[in-house]
Amino acid sequence: MQLKEKDLHLLLSDRCTSSIGVVTSALQSVCVRARLPACRVPSAMPVTSQLLRALPRSKVLASSLLPCQQHQSQFGPVAHLPASRKSAHMWQRRQPSRSYQTSSVLHSYILTPPQVNSILKANEYSFKVPEFDGKNVSSVMGFESNQLPANAPIEDRRSAATCLQTRGMLLGVFDGHAGCACAQALSERLFYYIAVSLLPHNTLCELEAAVEAGRALSPILQWHKHPNDYFSREAQRLYFNSLRTYWQELIDLTSPGDVPDTREALLNAFKRLDNDISLEAQVGDPNAFLHYWVLRVAFSGATACVAHIDGPDLFIANAGDARAVLGVQEEDGSFSAHTFSNDHNAQNESEVARIRSEHPPSERKTVIRQERLLGLLMPFRAFGDVKFKWSIELQKRVLESGPDQLHENEHTKFIPPNYHTPPYLTAEPEITYHKLRPQDRFLVIGSDGLWETLHRQEVIRIVGEYLTGVHQHQPLKVGGYRVTLGQMQGLLEERKARASSAFEDQNAATHLMRHAVGNNEFGTVDHERLSKMLSLPEELARMYRDDITIIITQFNPHVIGSNDKSTSLKI
């Protein structure tokens, strides 16, 4: 198994910068255990190649991250690689048969079911909307979320909060790249910007008056967080000052009696926070830690998919390649998937046309190369990523005045190729509105790590069956695989046992995650495969999947139905 130089470059990230030997030794040890030919690795890398190592492996061109083909069965199948759907599909065609047999490579890593459950449930979280007088008067019954890392540390973040000064609930998934700093900042700050944008003029004035008088502020958000969803305390004063400047400007721009528009509020909040992230990095901070932190946030990046739910009104604001999909229950009891966000990447023709239209014709062939922005970045919309937004002169000036730690990161000093007319990247969200109906039962928001492993219709079917306890049995399909009558009988018995037994998961997001990681070629969870995928060492896990973050919001059809009736009576 030969490891080309470009393969090694893409295996490196900002969390594995100690030496090439970290990855090299890991891959060679796997080769030894599997009795494969030793990996040949270059002794040194050109500086221009090392510059990509801080970019995430899922967001950097990674068609060469596939395991050696002739030895693939030793590692187990790769149904969906997060790096490139096209590359994964091409590879699958070259591998007509798959084997899920226990291999000598990963045999020692087989986890027991309790160990698997412990890993899958470590980050699960559930919230049920409180009832009043024994009744749930909200269109949202509650939500369940979970995260499963592939990167170490995980680069995804999630947030959920109830707006206290207005109405409604906010839920969001943030997928970081080139580190977790930007996603972390979004998880702490974006909802405040949205909530402030939704406040009427008088409430904004009351907030400002309280700050001026030194009084305690009325809370704006009620957060619903897992203990692992932390806040960076050191940056709270900086974040508050930026937020206050924003609401001061809103006071000047609005008048008493103005009713904020939700669509406009979401749009302004996204754009303003991205602008503040950029300004904070340019200005810096006297505190050395904060100075380094704001630069890390700005030079890393993150996509965002946020839902705002207020009564029957559902707004989705999306920038990047996370997705929001609605689960709709049909009259026959089955569930259908309705997507309310578009991926902002090379597979989206309108996005490609938009980017090309924003730059001169001379850059038509270079602005998008190898299905990536400037040949490097997979999402076409994201927060941070000032490497794709600032001028070359501004980048150099900020870096020269930055802390020494920043100079050790080659990514920050790297100027993308064919960089002529910035900005190339925007955080402006695409906003979708939908009026909820009684048949709209739940919403799934997931980072791209979920959608790269399961089709949206499969996601909705799995969640719908979990929430209702009713299995919509489709004809058993085995694709192009050869199965014996004994294997077919086993599949049918497994289906029967699964339908008649209670679910072992108490969280819908955990249940969906189990399928995303453990599904075999027949669409059922294979414990052996699930165990292997969860026990892969850090050096290999990211080659097989991305971080997965899921939020599943369940709607209250009775409240939504009553809203429809009251609206009809008014009309």
TrEMBL record:
One of its GO terms (cellular component) is mitochondrion. It is found in: Mitochondrion. It is an enzyme of class 3 (hydrolase). Mitochondrial enzyme that catalyzes the dephosphorylation and concomitant reactivation of the alpha subunit of the E1 component of the pyruvate dehydrogenase complex (PDC), thereby stimulating the conversion of pyruvate into acetyl-CoA. Its main location: mitochondrion. The keyword Disulfide bond does not apply. Keywords: Acetylation, Calcium, Hydrolase, Magnesium, Metal-binding, Mitochondrion, Protein phosphatase, Transit peptide. It catalyses: O-phospho-L-seryl-[pyruvate dehydrogenase E1 alpha subunit] + H2O = L-seryl-[pyruvate dehydrogenase E1 alpha subunit] + phosphate. The gene is PDP1. It comes from the Eukaryota. PROSITE patterns: PPM_1, PPM_2. Pfam families: PP2C. Its cofactor is Mn(2+); Mg(2+). Heterodimer of a catalytic (PDP1) and a regulatory (PDPR) subunit. This is [Pyruvate dehydrogenase [acetyl-transferring]]-phosphatase 1, mitochondrial.
